[in-house]
Amino acid sequence: MKVLIADDHSVVREGLKMILKKMDLVTSIEEAASGHEALDKLEKYEFDLVIMDISMPDLSGLDILKTLYDRKKKGIFLILSVHKQEQYAIRAFKLGASGYLSKDSVYEELTSAIKTVLAGKKFISSSLAEKMIFNKKNGHIIAPHEKLSEREFQIMCLLANGKAVKEIAAELFISDKTVSTHRMRILDKMDLKKNAELTNYAIKNDLIE
Questions:
Q1: How far apart are the first and last CA of the chain?
Q2: Domain range holding 154?
């Protein structure tokens, strides 16, 4: 089995490699330290399993999933995240992810997660799964943040966390103007007027910690 590990933290990659090497199924492990590097390898090579961080500075895991989804390129993607909010998991699954694993439980649950997704089933961290069950709503009206694109949702969360336009631009490797344009669209789609309202909305809807 050929595996790709995409995470911008070398310590995390090394930890994951140690676990994977104990599994007899794994024959080859590739690494990517950024979103762009991960996408480049995914476009060039075939992998049996991709373990990918949702929060990378240039391209997020959601950005990569969206790109591959639009290109109709399928695969088995196990997403790692520091975000315990169910909205991130829901978006990841909609874009083709097979599993969503919280980073604070990754080492305890990784082997089980890998076996589950390779069997063609979905996997989600037990703590988050419980939260999603209790928060599940049938036939509900679409919430304002659900109207946002993946990039808009990412920038919305950064703005709600108090980050300035220049900080976001530097983190995502895009221009200040692009961030400002996204900000205007976000506020318009969500019918809000300023960043403080974004922050209040994000807190109320458990989108930021």
A1: 36
A2: 144-204
- Asked, for residue 42, whether it belongs to a domain, the answer is yes
Domain match, 33 and 123 both: yes
CA 153, CA 169: separation in Å to the nearest integer?
15
Q: Which of 53, 27, 32, 56 is CA-nearest to residue 43?
A: 32
pTM of the model as a whole: 0.68
| Residue 58 and residue 170 in contact, taking contact as beta carbons nearer than 8 Å | no
pLDDT digits (tens, 9 = 90+) for 106-158: 777 888 899 899 999 989 876 666 555 444 444 444 678 878 888 888 899 99
Secondary structure tally for the chain: helices H, strands E: 10, 6
Strand, helix or coil for residue 5: strand
